[in-house]
């Protein structure tokens, strides 16, 4: 690859040259106000969904601490005011600039040709931000009149949230995808300075500033999702100008039908009649490859974000393409690559009339062509080049049936085995979509060999496929499980465990959010008590009572064993079931997931001749009956008046979960259930699963016809709850306090029920905070309540794995698991 200066004639430039233009070559025509033409296509982008969700989460989370005036607010205000060399007049100008820049953006949209839709979107975003901010302020106790006053005044007192900042941010962010990159950057600077000015001038506390920006982002994101936003795609005239800057002659320019995020694809014709594919990484592309790369790297294991800008991406793709081509891999050759005068990065490749594999007539896709495609993949594998998106659109087939690889934008050299095998999984699914899936598997096995197919199996999963391929699979009469089964049979191996490709899942995000709230509650409780006071409380505790609590802890497993025996339709011995309960306590801490516990139970009950569905039914029956017993105990204690719980006396540092939040939670659960049942795919899956397991579940439910079995289930669960309540009372006595048995029973059942609904393994943190709040509500001092909660969890959850590990060894030695 050589580097040519723009002064060189086009004829002197060899194929594959990299051209860069000097900054002085900027023309007046390259100065842009808008990123795209007024009639440019719009799209609803994932980044807007992410922004909206984050904004809602931020506003909701900050509502607990609103309207502010906390220590963090005071520290931030002091830091901003201490910034050197910045006079008060500068902050006043910065605050006024919010209003001025918002008016400028509106004015540009008003007077520009055919931009009235943009103007409507900006006004709508501002109105939505106003409503969101006013609602947040109302929830925090701020008056509407104060919010309206802050729109025109820059004088204290502070208001929650920052209203002018919210509306201005909404207008500026709503217009950002339509504006050129320099104007977008300037708008962000104005919002940043306006936020600092709001704090310095005392117009809003830091918490109000963050909420105001979040309200603005939410309003703009809603508008982008409703109306769509352009992607900064150049017009065909601008593309022709950029090609001229690189010395590429082309005619008959037209947009290509398939465009990745942040990249424009244009088809053109070379002077010799050959076909060209032009990729433009636009300077003003709103949802660019960098954002996509960062999101993918955060979501998937083994991926790293690509930094370096537009030119770096073009150079990277050109390098990998030339490298693969020189190593004998058929690839679409690079004609030119570089940066045009308008700061748009351009890559031109010669397609030579080849058609994407996915658009070929099915009759042309024969076994010979598929074999050549897998030979091409084998060559890439040997070179350690992972393509990253090896599907039917990245493989092109020439008129003589020769396949070639294109679009190396996501490729990596010296790739890991995981990336290379994920490539193969993507290619196998892509070929299975075009021909019979059994035929696709057979040809792949014949070319690569059984060992290669076996190594690929753990990556044959949705996480290894791009979005378009996943959607295409859903339209087939087969699914990935069917394809995986065929591949395992072709390789002559059993189905292996799937490789964990996803770094992040929605469940892990939810768990992280819950853990954050729990950590906040626990840390706040400890801060209110004081670490030294907590240490002194344990030093002064009666060790005899704590020893008794620890000695009583193993008895709970015996009671739970009776309930499990009652839920099992097959006869099982009491001793091994007790050991199973202890082993479950070990698994719950060593491998904190419900899947580990279910696997242990399936293994245990499988030894007594039960199917996996029957073993799961034992756990389900036991859990449901335990839930019923808990609810009955709570209702009996509350309705009889034996104990009353006054949470208003609990720690003020804990969030105020009033009835409206409970109502919101119930509504969200109902809506989630409705959505799941309304989606045909989910509804069909649930129906099929129920159909497959009906016989086993029906067999397991026969235990409910036996009064003895029902008595064992209910009695075992009730006795275990009584024992837990006794242990809680013993721990409380160790710190010099006591409650009635009804109060202890209510405390344990309420907290265990609440912690069971939280997506946190073992209720870690949730249970400690819950026991503390409940005990304080019954009149126990904060220090004793927190100490009791920690001691109770220690003897019932954190220490039982000691004998649980011995139980696991006992079960293995006697082949029960």
Structural write-up:
Strands 1-2-6-7-5-4-3 form a 7-stranded mixed sheet, with helices on both faces. The chain has a 3-stranded antiparallel sheet with strand order 8-9-10, covered by helices on one side. It has 4 domains: 3-29 and 232-350, Phosphorylase Kinase, domain 1, CATH 3.30.200.20; 46-227, no CATH class; 355-491, Transferase(Phosphotransferase), domain 1 (Orthogonal Bundle), CATH 1.10.510; 521-655 and 705-813, no CATH class. The protein has helices at 46-62, 71-81, 88-111, 116-139, 144-152, 163-175, 181-200, 206-227, 236-245, 289-299, 309-326, 367-383, 417-434, 437-448, 450-456, 467-474, 480-491, 506-529, 531-539, 543-567, 574-590, 594-606, 612-640, 659-678, 680-700, 707-734, 741-757, 766-777, 782-798, 801-813; strands at 3-4, 17-20, 251-255, 264-269, 275-281, 334-339, 345-350, 355-356, 395-397, 403-405. By secondary structure, it is mostly helical.
């Amino acid at each position: 690859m050589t580097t040519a200066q723009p002064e060189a004639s086009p004829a002197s430039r060899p194929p594959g040259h990299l051209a860069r233009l000097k900054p002085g070559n900027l023309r007046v025509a390259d100065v842009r106000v808008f990123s795209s033409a007024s009639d440019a296509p719009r799209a609803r982008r994932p980044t807007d969904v992410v922004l909206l969700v984050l904004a809602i989460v931020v506003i909701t989370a900050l509502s607990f601490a609103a309207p502010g005036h906390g220590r963090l607010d005071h520290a931030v205000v002091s830091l901003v005011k201490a910034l050197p060399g910045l006079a008060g007049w500068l902050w006043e100008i910065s605050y006024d600039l919010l209003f001025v820049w918002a008016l400028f953006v509106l004015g540009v949209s008003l007077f520009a040709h055919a931009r009235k839709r943009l103007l409507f979107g900006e006004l709508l975003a501002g109105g939505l931000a106003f409503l969101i901010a006013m609602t947040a302020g109302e929830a925090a106790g701020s008056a509407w009149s104060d919010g309206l006053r802050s729109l025109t005044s820059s004088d204290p007192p502070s208001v929650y949230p920052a209203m002018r900042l919210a509306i201005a941010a909404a207008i500026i962010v709503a217009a950002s995808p339509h504006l050129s990159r320099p104007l977008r950057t300037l708008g962000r600077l104005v919002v940043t300075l306006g936020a600092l000015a709001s704090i310095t001038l005392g117009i809003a506390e830091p918490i109000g500033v963050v909420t105001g920006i979040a309200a603005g982002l939410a309003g703009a994101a809603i508008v982008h999702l409703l109306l769509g936003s352009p992607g900064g795609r150049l017009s065909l005239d601008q593309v022709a100008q950029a090609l001229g800057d690189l010395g590429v002659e082309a005619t008959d320019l037209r947009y290509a039908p398939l465009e990745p995020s942040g990249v424009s694809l244009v088809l053109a014709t070379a002077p010799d009649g050959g076909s060209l594919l032009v990729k433009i990484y636009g300077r003003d592309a709103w949802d660019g490859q960098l954002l996509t790369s960062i999101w993918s790297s955060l979501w998937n294991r083994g991926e790293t974000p690509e930094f370096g800008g537009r030119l770096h991406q073009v150079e990277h793709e050109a390098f990998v393409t030339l490298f693969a081509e020189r190593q004998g891999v058929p690839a679409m050759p690079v004609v030119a690559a570089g940066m045009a005068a308008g700061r748009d990065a351009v890559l031109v490749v010669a397609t030579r009339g080849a058609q994407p594999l996915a658009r070929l007539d099915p009759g042309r896709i024969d076994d010979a062509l598929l074999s050549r495609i897998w030979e091409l993949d084998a060559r890439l594998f040997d070179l350690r080049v992972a393509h990253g998106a090896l599907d039917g659109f990245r493989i092109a087939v020439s008129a003589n049936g020769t396949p070639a690889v294109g679009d190396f934008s996501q490729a990596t050299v010296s790739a890991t085995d995981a990336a290379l095998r994920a490539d193969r999984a993507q290619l196998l699914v892509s070929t299975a979509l075009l021909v019979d899936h059994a035929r696709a598997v057979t040809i792949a096995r014949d070319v690569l060999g059984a060992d290669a197919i076996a190594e690929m199996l753990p990556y044959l999963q949705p996480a290894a496929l791009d979005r378009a391929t996943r959607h295409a699979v859903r339209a087939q009469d087969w699914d990935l499980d069917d394809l995986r089964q065929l591949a395992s049979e072709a390789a002559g191996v059993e189905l292996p465990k799937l490789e964990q490709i996803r770094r992040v899942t929605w469940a892990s995000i939810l768990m992280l959010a819950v853990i954050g709230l729990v950590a906040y509650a626990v840390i706040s409780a400890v801060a209110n008590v004081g670490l030294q006071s907590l240490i002194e409380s344990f030093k002064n505790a009666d060790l005899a009572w704590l020893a008794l609590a620890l000695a009583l802890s193993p008895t709970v497993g015996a009671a739970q064993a009776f309930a499990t025996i009652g839920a099992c339709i097959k006869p099982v011995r009491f001793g091994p079931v007790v050991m199973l309960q202890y082993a479950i306590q070990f698994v719950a801490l060593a491998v904190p997931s419900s899947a580990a516990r279910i696997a242990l139970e399936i293994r245990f009950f499988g030894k007594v001749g039960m199917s996996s569905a029957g073993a799961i039914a034992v756990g389900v029956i036991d859990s449901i009956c335990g839930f019923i017993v808990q609810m009955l105990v709570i209702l009996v204690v509350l309705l009889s008046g034996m104990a009353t719980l006054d949470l208003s006396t609990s720690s003020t540092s804990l969030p105020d979960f009033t009835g409206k939040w409970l109502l919101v939670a119930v509504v969200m659960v109902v809506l989630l259930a409705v959505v799941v049942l309304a989606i045909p795919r989910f509804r069909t899956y649930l129906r099929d699963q129920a159909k497959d397991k009906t016989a086993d579940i029906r067999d397991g439910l026969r235990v409910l016809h036996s009064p003895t079995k029902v008595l064992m289930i209910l009695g075992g669960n009730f006795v275990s709850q009584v024992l837990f309540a006794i242990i809680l009372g013993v721990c409380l006595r160790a710190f010099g306090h006591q409650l009635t048995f009804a109060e202890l029973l209510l405390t344990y059942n309420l907290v265990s029920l609440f912690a069971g609904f939280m997506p946190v393994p073992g209720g870690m943190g949730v249970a400690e905070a819950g026991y503390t709040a409940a005990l304080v509500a019954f009149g126990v001092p904060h220090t004793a309540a927190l100490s009791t909660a920690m001691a109770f969890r220690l003897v019932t959850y954190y220490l039982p794995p000691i004998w649980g590990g011995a139980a696991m060894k006992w079960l293995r030695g006697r082949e029960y698991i």
